């Protein structure tokens, strides 16, 4: 008999499998990134239909087989519906999912990364926060969690004092206070430039969703 496990997590991505099933990638607090199959989840009447789409956050009950997990039950506490109703916000959210998928590891505690993703999606849903600031802060903290961020960046004398202060703040502040500040357009542009350079150097890859965001928010958009 297969063992049943309860995992607190968020759906990062989902893809069709078989005729009506879904293969879901889940970021969990307990076991990091894992994949499971949701049988019949693409049927219009399935109780797993909405629970196996990106942004769904809750407790997933999975049965562990020899080579895969299968969804048995789920209790969703947040679908981030307000974010899904904002097209640009959805694009940013999908980008955050891609970054989380990149940094998450299998069978390793991912509680801090999951918390970061959750509070960052909530920040994206806040109309009073600049989405580009949220993106840069999220990237920075994700790199810090992975041990890839150069701490000396906050002491770079070529940066403006306000930028250095913002960098130091993001490095040290608790997650619950991560998105409680704003930057002037000039400082945000410099702060963002720092993150983009470091992110590109550390990951060495292009994220498809980020390219879409740049097309939507670029000059003349």
How many beta-strand runs? Answer: 5
Sequence stretches where pLDDT stays below 50 over 5 or more residues = none
How big is the Rg?
Answer: 18 Å
- The assigned CATH architecture of the largest domain is Up-down Bundle
Strand percentage lies at 15-25%
- H-E order: EEEEEHHHHHHH
- What is the typical, i.e. mean, pLDDT? 94
Tally of alpha and pi helices: 7
CATH class of the largest domain: Mainly Alpha
As a percent range, the share of helical residues equals: 40-55%
- The gross shape turns out to be elongated
In the sheet with the most strands, the strands line up as 1-2-3-5-4
Structural class: alpha+beta
Largest sheet: 5 strands, mixed, barrel
**Total separate domains:** 2
Cα-to-Cα separation, first versus last residue: 56 Å
What is CATH's topology name of the largest domain? Answer: de novo design (two linked rop proteins)
């Amino acid at each position: 008999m297969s063992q049943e496990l309860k995992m607190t997590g968020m759906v990062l991505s989902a893809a069709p499998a078989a005729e009506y099933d879904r293969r879901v990638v889940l970021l969990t607090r307990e076991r990091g990134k894992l994949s499971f199959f949701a049988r019949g989840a693409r049927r219009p009447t399935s109780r797993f239909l909405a629970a196996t789409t990106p942004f769904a956050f809750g407790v997933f009950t999975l049965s562990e087989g020899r080579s895969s997990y299968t969804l048995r039950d789920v209790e969703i506490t947040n679908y981030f519906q307000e974010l899904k109703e904002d097209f640009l916000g959805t694009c940013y959210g999908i980008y955050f999912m891609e970054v989380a998928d990149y940094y998450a590891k299998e069978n390793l505690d991912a509680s801090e990364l999951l918390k970061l993703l959750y509070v960052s999606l909530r920040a994206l849903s806040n109309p009073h926060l600049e989405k580009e600031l949220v993106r840069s802060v999220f990237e920075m903290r994700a790199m810090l969690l992975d041990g890839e961020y150069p701490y000396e960046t906050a002491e770079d004398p070529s940066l403006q004092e306000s930028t250095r202060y913002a960098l130091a703040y993001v490095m040290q502040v608790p997650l619950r206070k991560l998105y409680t500040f704003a930057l002037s357009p000039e400082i945000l542009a410099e702060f963002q430039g720092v993150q983009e350079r470091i992110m590109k150097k550390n990951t060495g890859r292009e994220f498809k969703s980020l390219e879409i965001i740049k097309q939507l928010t670029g000059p003349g958009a």
